[in-house]
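User: Here's a protein and a ligand (FE2/S2 (inorganic) cluster). What would the complex look like?
Assistant: Let me lay out the input and then the predicted complex.
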Amino acid sequence: MTHTAAERSAGQPSDPRASAEPTPRASAEPTPPARVELEFRPAGLRVRVPPGVTLFDAASWNGIAIDSTCGGHGTCKKCKIRIADGTVPVSPLDARAFSPDELRSGWRLACRALAGTDAKIEVPPLVTRPKAATVGVGRQVILRPAAQKRYLELAEPSLADQQTDIERVLAALDDLELRVDLAVLRSLGARLRSADFRVTAVIVDDVLIDVQAGDTTDRLFGIAFDLGTTTVVATLLDLRTGTPLAVESMLNKQQPFGADVISRISAVMLKPAALDEMSRLAHETLAELAGEVCARAGASPADIAEVAVAGNATMTHLALGIDPEPLGVAPFIMAARQLPEVLAADLGVPAHPRARAFPFPAFGAYVGGDITAGLLASGMNRDARTRLFIDVGTNCEIVLGNRDWLLATAAPAGPAFEGAAIRCGMRAAPGAIESVSANPSQHGAHQLSSGPYGQGGPRMPGNSDGQGNSDGQGNSDGQGNSDGQGNSDGRGNSDGRGNSDGLSLRVIGDCEPTGLCGSGLVDAVATLLAAGLLDRSGRLVSDDVAAQVAPALAPRLAMLGHERVFVLHWLGEPGDVAASIYLTQRDIRELQFAKAAIATGWRVLLAEAALAESDVQQVLLAGSFGSYLSPASAIAIGLVPSLPAVRIVSAGNVAGEGAKMALLSVRERAAALALLEEVRYVELSDRADFNDAFVEQLQFPG
Ligand code: FES
């Protein structure tokens, strides 16, 4: 049995994890851990964290700096704190750092102190400043990469000192419990002796991956990959400082196998050899980008000790050569949520031959590692505010929640936002119309035409000459455009009728428009709705109605064959609709289906949480499309909850940011893994109420 939204809102507790009825999928999910409350003094900040988190992490996650020069490795003994109230067991390292009296008074090393019960903690003022980098959505990350280098000056063996070579190295690293790659032993003897026992140990996590001659500690790099279905982005990071040294992006070379994940899974289902081919193409993409960022920064690939990869489940499966077929058929099962130890070489990345790779864990077949990375970067799991995270794409991932609970779902939005399935659609590349707006005073919007000012309504301030628009986006020459071919600034309206109808376009690359990308599509539909040229059902109005409600824009409505279209930009001979950039009735339907899928997704999550739209304190629009989407237009078409536009914010490329965080901090990486236990996945496809909700959401807001 599943509660309806009304039943939930009538007296259900507000924590949806506590209130949710078990569904077949939910019952398989592990029980979320309880939280303990920590109060840090003198700041007085109270935070709630899962038990087992170190007090050092709990503090740094919440912006409280604790003294440290080792970043939580347990080697500097500077992270001293006092437990003023509560119980924190004494760690072996505490016994070496404090006197028995100090231990009795509650002194502990924060990086070794595990939160187990509610506690009040005194944090002494900083003596040294921990190294930190700002990544994610304004997140401060204390640097503690899994990859580290240590310079060692070792005593040479003698008849009196019979330690083996590896014992000699490990004894100098006695604060770490290390495993050793066999390949290290193969060259260790010669390396130590040729370098007079002055060497650098290269460590990733708990593995000694190399012993290098001399001091190489000034060269330690990592690459964060955002492995998208369409675009792949690589960022080279200096792991000692957190500084991004170079960024490059390119189209995923798997494109010939289809634009979306379903096409690529289908390709493998039809022809099993396609798996090897797509795996090879993923490796080629990653390798080419790695080469480019290294060349740009003057870094040697051999100094890359680790890479992190944030990709959806299909991209991750394909890159690792794992059969993706079960992802594409019900009940949509991944090979693994969390992958076993992976080397950069397994992904084809040219790096140190024993460099490690961290593929982000995924919540489900359609809420993948890119979303785990995005949630990490946006701090959804640490924020008291209830926020809605929407990664708009062919498959749209949606997460609702705050630091106490998180619900996730995936909505099949289709390719409309990528420009596919739209007649004049294109990717967000030079020539794409990315923004559309109209000045109501010029097109004579219906809201104004019936008022006391008559058709056209009152003049807007700053735009009283009726010739040029002055919104900073369109043609601002104040002369109108009368050449019949459009103006050449590439930004204004070049429709051959002048811009006196008030329609303005913004084009990527400031060039002649050649198509319409996702953000332009949403803007165009929002503009038509505002002008009264599109009714709530999504139907373009008749010529008669158009002439009445928006006389200036009405001539842009035309027929192309049997289909009704709205011309955004005239090209070719005057009146040549086919040569122009236009929006068709069918395009509008495509957008309706996409927005209905997404709106149904977040409405289902709100119902699960027994919350209303107004309870959402912030909407984060993630992904490259989300970054360019106009909040006002997104609200106007019902893509996001109806909230003040300032609450709708672009989160940028959060997947890439999350990948950077995982490289810079093992603590953040642990937080990403912990997210798997904190997020409850809500499957839309098996819900009885999905179809009705979807049909309802096809309408545009009234
Ligand atoms: S010992 Fe260095 S941070 Fe704890």
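Summary: Confidence is low (pLDDT under 50) at residues 1-33, 444-498.
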